[in-house]
Every structure is written in structure tokens, then in C-alpha cells.
Amino acid sequence: MGHPVYHLELDVRHCRAELRLNDMPLISLTSHDPLPVTFAPPINPFLVGELNIIDVEILPLVDDAGVPTSTFWDAKIEGNVRRFEKDDIFAPGAGDVVTEFTIPDELIERVREEELELPQHFSHIFSNEVIDFSGELSDAPPFHDRDALLDYAVHLRDLTAAGNVAGMLAEMDAKIQVWVAAYDETYEAFADSLREELESFFAERPITDFERDQIELRSCCGGRLWELMKAPGLPLLQTGPDAAGGTTQLPIIVGLRDAALRVVR
Q1: Which of 85-90's residues contact partners 24+ apart within 8 Å by CB, and which partners?
Q2: What's the CA gap between 74 and 34, in Å, rounded?
Q3: Which of 190, 224, 239, 257 fits a disulfide with 248 by CB distance 3.0 to 4.6 angstroms?
Q4: Among residues 57, 78, 79, 72, which one has the least CA distance to residue 110?
């Protein structure tokens, strides 16, 4: 068989759902009615082989005043992991099913018996073949130097403000290496793709007028990796809204590599 490519598909109805894979933020979906909202990203860089943990938080819909407008009993969540072979054409419902999950009966019973409200949480475990980043995501020692993380976030902000594509690409070398291993492609292919993405992103003039005390740190993988964000809960690097209100975002997850912080996902 060739090199496997795994996709995790999440289908959400009448609720908000936040999904983490091996304690990495992966999917955030909101459905305001019974019609499904679905997302099915590739997940190779986030897999750890035999013990992958999916964590799903079910959250209520809220109105403009922040008042909940949905309950646990409105929510419908279904998901699966499917395996494809490299160069297969991805399509929802295709590929080999590795695992499937939904709101477990145990949680349904507990909510009913204890009359619980949202938010609620459940987990699901599965294994995968070939792809294993447990050395980074599960087994590496945690890193808790908050000052170093904040300093590094400022460094990335300044590279962005200067439009320094080469400098940012160098900071993302570890991420490129992961993608090369995850998808069995050449370094040059991913480096060229990321360079083009950065050039396009910088051309949109991302927002960089924020200070060190506005930076938020969110732990991933038990503190082995960190998501760098900007208060209140925004991506560290993003553009301002366009005419339609849309923004371009560049999520940043960092970790220690060769005794220095680098962008790793």
C-alpha cells in the first residue's frame, strides 16, 4: 500500500462544537439550525499512532446578548476518521472508515439523570497506521517558559510587520519538515507552497499593531506545544476584514526545536 492520508470529518447540527485531536485545536463549527455544518480536514501532522484522542466540547448557541438559545437535547454531532491513499481524490463518504463517533450514550444518560446543561464534553480514542508524531506530541517534555513564548510571539509579529517572508519561512522550517514526513512529499514542494502563502498573506497587510501584553498563550499537547493568540482569543496573525467582513488568518503553534522556539504546526 502507499502512503496513507487521514481525514477527520465532523458534522454538527444546532450547536457549537470545538474539537481537539491529541490536545491540538482542530475544528470549530457552529450550526444555527438542524441543517448540518461539516468540515473534514486532513490530520496526518496531528496523529500519534496507537493512541489518538478526540475531545469534543458541545457548546450552546447564544443570542447577541450572550444568552443560550439551544440545549444539549438540540445538539447533533457525528464524526469519523477515514483513510485514503496518497494521490487519492478526497470526497466525503469515500475512503476506508477507521473509526466513527457521536455523542455517547453514557453522556446522554448522565445529562438526563443529573439535569445537566451545556457545555458538555466527550472523548473518543482510535489508532492509526504509519503516521506517528508521538515523539513531539505525546512524549516530549513540556515547555513552560511564558516569557520566552511571549518574546517569540513579538518576534513573529515584527517579522510580519516588516513583510519578511524569508525570515518567517526560516521560523517555519520545523513545520515544513513535519508536513514532508506527514504527507511523503518533497521539502521544496511544501517550502514553495508556504512561501507563496506568506507572500499573499503579507500583501494583505496583516494587523501588527498589538503589544506584548495583548498576546495570549494556549497550551497544546500538555504544554509540549503552544498556540500563540491575540486577546480576546483571536489568531496572532490575521488581516483586517475585507468588504464582505472576511479575514485571512495564519494560525501559529510553536514548540521547542534544537533548544529554540520554532513554528511547528
Answers
A1: 85/1, 85/2, 85/3, 85/4, 85/5, 86/2, 86/3, 86/4, 86/5, 86/183, 86/184, 87/2, 88/5, 90/5, 90/7, 90/40, 90/42
A2: 8
A3: 239
A4: 72
